[in-house]
Amino acid sequence: MKRYLNFPLVKGEASRQAHADLPEGTYEREMSKEGFFGPAAFFYHRNPPTGWIDFDGPLAPRAFDLTQINEAPNSLWSAPVVLHNKATEIRLWRLAEAMPSLDRNGDGDQILFVHRGAGDFFCDFGHLAIGQGDYVVIPRGTMWRIVPTEPMQILAVEATNSSYTLPDKGLLGPHAIFDPAVMDTPEIDDAFRAQQGDLETRVAVKKRGQVSWMTYPFNPLDAVGWHGELSVARLNVRDIRPIMSHRYHVPPSAHTTFLADRFVICTFAPRPFETDPKALKVPFFHNNDDYDEVLFYHDGDFFSRDNIHPGMMTLHPTGFTHGPHPKALTRMFEQPKAMTDEYAVMIDTRDPLEIGEAASAVEWTGYKDSWKAKS
Ligand SMILES: [Fe+2]
């Protein structure tokens, strides 16, 4: 069993409670192991830790405006990869018309996050209506297709060679944040039966990153029923009831929604601001030295970020110090309004991410300078 050099110390002028009671005029920065779960140190700086006047080299943070991706392929496997590593593959997929064939992922479980639009999802397990704000969790090997009822924009996150699981809710109990009973699963219904028949159907199977085609003289989504505990499942972000503390800015890890072997998916949903006058109201500065952090902005007003709009994605590489933008920093102990009004999907990966061509093409190169105070 590993044991960290792990004992609490207090040096100089410091708060003894993270994210609250900061020495007058200081800025708190957290340095920690294992995301926000391991040993940590909290520094009280005289200047904002993001106050650099120049930043050069590959560690710089990146931002991509995925709304500018215009390709609209009719298979997920042709959708552009925006970020990837050995543990995940993240794509932005615009789907305008009914898929003419089925997709199947042999490389790992798949999550489709519906950023915009709606449609009917048909799969081995039946039929499920899907729409904006839905996470659709698809077990590896499932055959599926989507018939949009409105043009769709989907953020697809693959758990390469892994499975999606739910986090342990610990002291909060299993029904906190979201009750697993709010998740929906496909039905063997009239819509599902109506799409069955002897229509020649092709299946695009992705395995080891390559696509193979299987052709059937019938639609293989032809189950008359099934039983078991494995299924496609849908969770809508509006069914998430985030935890908060009126006296403590809880870390992003408290918003974990799904786990894979080498990354986590968290959801930021609207929640009240802290009310204790000495508690931080904005995310604290931190390095996150063990995880690359990806944030996909789904909906709302992103109070801690200037110049960010829905459909954008940011990447904060491991070790890059970040925190609130200058506008939010001026009110780190104020309540700008009663509630945050933002939905965002965070993907924190244990291994560094590579940037795909599609993302490079829509990069906002000014992002690394966005912490500079406006004159
Ligand atoms: Fe972060």
UniProtKB/TrEMBL annotation:
The Homogentisate 1,2-dioxygenase C-terminal domain extends over 262-373
Q: Any idea which UniProt keywords this protein has?
A: Dioxygenase, Iron, Metal-binding, Oxidoreductase
Gene3D superfamilies per the UniProt record, alphabetical: Jelly Rolls
Ranges for domain Homogentisate 1,2-dioxygenase N-terminal come to 89-229
Q: Which cofactor does it need?
A: Fe cation
Upper taxonomic classification of the species? Bacteria, Pseudomonadati, Pseudomonadota, Alphaproteobacteria, Sphingomonadales
Family label: Belongs to the homogentisate dioxygenase family.
| Pfam families documented for this protein | HgmA_C, HgmA_N
Organism of origin is: Sphingosinicella xenopeptidilytica
What's the protein here called?
Answer: Homogentisate 1,2-dioxygenase
Q: Which PANTHER family match?
A: HOMOGENTISATE 1,2-DIOXYGENASE
